[in-house]
Amino acid sequence: MDLSFSRQNKNEFVYQSLLEAIRVGTYPRGSRLPSERELEDQYSCSRITIRHALERLNKKQVIRRLQGNGTFVNGIDPYSSTDFRVGLVLDAEDDELYNDPWLSELMYGMISAGMNQPFVISIIPVAKNETILDSLAKRGQELHDYNGFIAARNLSAEEIETLSTLELPFVLLQNENLKSAHSYVSIDNTQGTYLAASHLLAIGCRHLFFMIPEKSPQFRNQVKGFQQALREYGLPADPEKFILSVGEDDCGDAERHTEELLARKTEFDGLLLGTDGCTYSAVTTLRKHGIRIPEDVSVIMWDDFPLVSKLLRLPLTVVRQPFRAQIVSAIEILISQRNMEKPSSIQRIIQPSLIVRCSCRVPGGN
């Protein structure tokens, strides 16, 4: 996403998001933009914020507003080649980008980073079975159009070798097994699950389950943190006894797991739910069977995405991952290597936090 950030606010977020949607072709040249009311609902903001963003786009002649007919796309001129340009590589299709709360967190982090030093960042969505080179080729671009890359997806060995050979700096946000060899900004997932499991145990829960995507790159570290908390309380820590694996259909899998626990009359009083989809389905299923939260079962969600709490009408206790700080740190690393002949390897680890709300019972409560 081509974003040149100056300050952190909702107006800037909406403006930059619309600008990028036009640039990558989500709204092609000549197409009609959604109405102000539709954009207001899409971005969960006021009509004033939408009009402010549209006015800025209109002044830049990116769009044209025809009274009574709507708003139409003109297109975007290329950015100046003198900008420090960063590519943010994502494992996603174009049409998945603008409803992703994780991406919103990254974008706000980019805005924060831009307060200290100007730069341009472009989101590079890479589809399944494609590479960075494939994605750039579709856009008429090459690797050398960028000064560096941030990889928010697992890069293949070939992609890493290509970037290293060309001496283009890059920072990994994934690829746990490569963090010792390349620049990397990691979130301490072991500590995150340890905090969650420890809290459930501290409030009196003794029969815990963890629903988690087994193919997640954080899987091993998350299990490790959960085991550590169980062992400290003298409880069995065999993953087969507490892991409930979910796949791409995390909502369906979470519903199935919850139904099975109830059908088998399995004793459980604490759940750590590894995705927002898991959380929504598990809580909904429990409520359907008259199970009270938090009186009967305490629930913690992995990631602090507020939409789930709103849909469930339940302020959820969460493990908050510092995505904004992660992307800020990654950008700082790239900019620090701006004038280096050969990029150096820098590793940083950022700590998550536990935010306690109403989905967990109070200590000593029934």
What does this structure look like?
By secondary structure, the chain is of the alpha/beta class. It has three domains: 10-73, Arc Repressor Mutant, subunit A (Orthogonal Bundle); 85-187 and 324-351, 3-Layer(aba) Sandwich (Rossmann fold), CATH 3.40.50.2300; 189-321, 3-Layer(aba) Sandwich (Rossmann fold), CATH 3.40.50.2300. The protein is 39% helix and 17% strand. The chain is built from 13 helices and 14 strands. A six-stranded mixed sheet has the order 9-8-10-11-12-14, sandwiched between helices. The protein has a four-stranded parallel sheet with strand order 4-3-5-6, with helices on both faces. Helix 1 (10-23) crosses helix 3 and helix 10 (250-263) packs parallel to helix 11. The longest helix is centred in the first third of the chain and has 14 residues, at 10-23.
